[in-house]
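Colleagues,

For the teaching module next term, I've prepared a clean inverse folding example: a structure given as tokens, and then the sequence designed for it. I'd like students to try predicting residues themselves before seeing the answer, so please don't circulate the second half yet.
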């Protein structure tokens, strides 16, 4: 009798366990647990397969889940004098949870977009893109899909502009809107959602699609929560009012060295560094800073630098 009861109890818990395994993803993604949903969705968006989550949610729904801060503010472009001294300075960032680096580029017009040589077929590492373009520095830039599961960074999305020409998005309708991080002819850092037509009117010369904006017109954009993407490696870019560009890379996923940063951490670091404009770039295993012939940070991927399609380089 006891043996039969024991078997029934084991069977019950086995069934309950299977039901939990089957229903847990549904509860996480569609249940009432907002914080857990935000963390899971944010992690998927930073993974090698962010397209999977787009099968379940629209872009507007994803923006609401991860807490992207929408703003109706119009970006105020800086009046740059063009008297940059051409200097480049590297310094470290340290806190209890993370370590990273900031590279200061005095002349914003030295920053350009560079792409993998076989764009659309396979990516390259940040350092190889820099070397191929004879650049002194580089960071990873725009987002991409790895739809073949090989981690080759082969399929960028959104817009890519170099020397005023659309390398990606050329066939798009003029009114199509994408998140954009890039530069106009005067060296202003442009961040936010823009159409191809608007970017043309603003004189956009270099840029890629990613985000969200972190600082706009000198004001922080993330004022509630941590940005919704959890803790991890981060790459971001900012600009001071004098035109100086800030490359920020925070290492993560390495418990004995650096756990990582939130979007709000990245925002606050750049704000303290004097950024008047700033935006998030692709993070996670992609986060890489190359300077003076070497990778100065510690990328999170076990294989080293991740293959990516686009980088911001310093000529």
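(Answer key — instructors only)
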């Amino acid at each position: 009798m006891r043996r039969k009861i024991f078997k029934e109890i084991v069977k019950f818990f086995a069934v309950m366990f299977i039901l939990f395994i089957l229903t847990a993803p549904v509860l996480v993604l569609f249940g009432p647990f907002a914080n857990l949903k935000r963390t899971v969705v944010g992690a998927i968006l930073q993974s090698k397969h962010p397209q999977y989550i787009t099968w379940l949610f629209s872009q507007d729904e994803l923006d609401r889940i991860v807490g992207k801060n929408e703003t109706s503010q119009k970006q105020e472009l800086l009046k740059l004098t063009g008297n940059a001294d051409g200097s480049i300075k590297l310094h470290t960032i340290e806190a209890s949870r993370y370590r990273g680096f900031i590279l200061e580029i005095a002349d914003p017009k030295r920053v350009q977009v560079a792409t993998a040589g076989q764009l659309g077929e396979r990516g390259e590492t940040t350092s190889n893109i820099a070397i191929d373009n004879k650049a002194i520095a580089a960071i990873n830039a725009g987002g991409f899909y790895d739809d073949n599961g090989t981690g080759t960074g082969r399929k960028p999305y959104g817009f890519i502009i170099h020397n005023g020409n659309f390398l990606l998005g050329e066939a798009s309708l003029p009114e199509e809107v994408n998140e954009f991080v890039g530069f106009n002819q005067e060296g202003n850092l442009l961040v936010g959602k823009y159409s191809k037509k608007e970017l043309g009117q603003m004189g956009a010369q270099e840029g890629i699609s990613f985000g969200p904006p972190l600082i706009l017109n000198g004001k922080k954009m993330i004022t509630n929560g941590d940005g919704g993407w959890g803790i991890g490696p981060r790459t971001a870019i900012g600009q001071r009012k004098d035109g100086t560009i800030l490359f920020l890379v925070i290492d993560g996923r390495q418990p004995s060295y650096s756990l990582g940063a939130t979007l709000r951490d990245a925002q606050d670091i750049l704000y303290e560094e004097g950024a008047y404009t700033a935006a998030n770039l692709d993070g996670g295993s992609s986060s890489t800073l190359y300077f003076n012939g070497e990778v100065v940070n510690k990328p999170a991927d076990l294989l080293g630098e991740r293959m990516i399609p686009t980088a911001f380089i310093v000529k």
